[in-house]
Specification:
Number of strands: 24
Shape: globular
CATH superfamily: TolB, C-terminal domain
Number of domains: 1
Number of helices: 1
Largest sheet: 4 strands, antiparallel
Radius of gyration: 23 Å
CATH class: Mainly Beta
CATH topology: Neuraminidase
Structural class: mainly beta
CATH architecture: 6 Propeller
Length: 309
């Protein structure tokens, strides 16, 4: 028999490799990043940022300094977390990697015009393209909504109103911003253009409505309201119509957050509740069904924020 040439042997090896890696019996080692949530806990005696899978497993502590750390917000690419910390003195906006590394203070160098009182920068939220961050600040005398670059550059006051404006949330297409304000006498949910113009009251209710967040498709808004006696989670259409209560645990239910558009279990809402005696993180479907408790810390857990995958 004639001995196979080198070229023929190479072709044979390539053909065998193709057979071994094709078909139903192939060994696919590709892994999918699990859906994750950042949250705040004082389980170790100090308020810190933690990370867990969306089923409550694999809890990891991300911040470990002596300051108070709160208000986590995941970047659109899922690789960074903005948060609030007073580790440098007054509360400032920080950004760190999703594993807690390389924390950077974004607002400490900003001009703050309250030299004798606490300067508070809080409640960060990312723009859909990840290039900007909205936050709340009292640097001009009362609480206003500000916009800055994701590196802390060019902070700009968007609301400029003495009524107290807080809790901003960017629409999925980046064109509008939700927030709540006391400008009409009590807390109401408003929407404005991304440049601060065309402000409209969406909730218009005599009780407090706060902490609004857009759904991933922009069609609905989840928020916190005490219109039925206790702070509870509500849902309404993006134009403010058809408000409906989703969660009613008899105590506090609030700080709702929508899951990302690519979440494997479909649209879900994470929130904080003390229905079991202590503050813990829960999740439910967008219609209020399939309620699950996710966290089981020895202290209080809350302020959940989804991370994109």
């Amino acid at each position: 028999m004639r001995k196979a040439t080198r070229r023929q042997r190479i072709a044979l090896v390539a053909a065998l490799a193709l057979l071994l890696t094709s078909g139903c019996g192939s060994d696919d080692t590709t892994t999918t990043t699990p859906q994750q949530l950042a949250f705040v806990s004082n389980r170790d005696g100090n308020a810190d940022i933690y990370l867990m899978n969306a089923d409550g497993s694999q809890v990891e502590q991300l911040t470990q300094d002596a300051g108070t750390n709160s208000s986590p917000a995941g970047s659109p690419n899922g690789q960074q977390i903005a948060f609030v910390s007073d580790r440098a003195g007054d509360p400032d906006i920080f950004v760190m990697s999703k594993n807690g590394g390389n924390p950077q203070n974004l607002t400490s160098s900003s001009v703050k015009r309250r030299p004798t009182l606490a300067n508070v920068d809080s409640e960060p939220t990312w723009s859909p393209d990840g290039q900007q961050i909205l936050f709340t600040s009292n640097r001009d005398g009362d609480y206003e909504i500000y916009r800055m670059g994701s590196d802390g550059s060019n902070p700009t006051n968007l609301t400029n109103h003495p009524g107290g404006d807080r809790g901003a949330s960017w629409s999925p297409d980046g064109s509008r911003i939700l927030f709540y304000s006391y400008r009409d006498g009590n807390a109401e949910i408003y929407v404005m253009d991304a440049d601060g113009g065309n402000v409209v009251n969406l909730s218009d209710h005599c009780e407090a409505d706060t902490r609004p967040r857009w759904s991933s498709d922009g069609g609905q808004i989840v928020f916190e309201s005490d219109r039925d006696g206790n702070p509870e989670v509500y849902l309404m259409n993006a134009d403010g119509s058809a408000p409906a209560r989703l969660a009613d645990g008899g105590g506090y239910e609030g700080g709702p957050a929508w899951s990302p558009s690519n979440a494997p279990d479909g649209p879900q809402i994470a929130f904080t509740s003390d229905r079991d005696g202590e503050y813990q993180v829960y999740v439910m479907d967008a219609d209020g069904g399939s309620l699950q408790r996710l966290s089981n810390g020895a202290g209080d857990d809350g302020a959940p924020a989804w991370l994109a995958r």
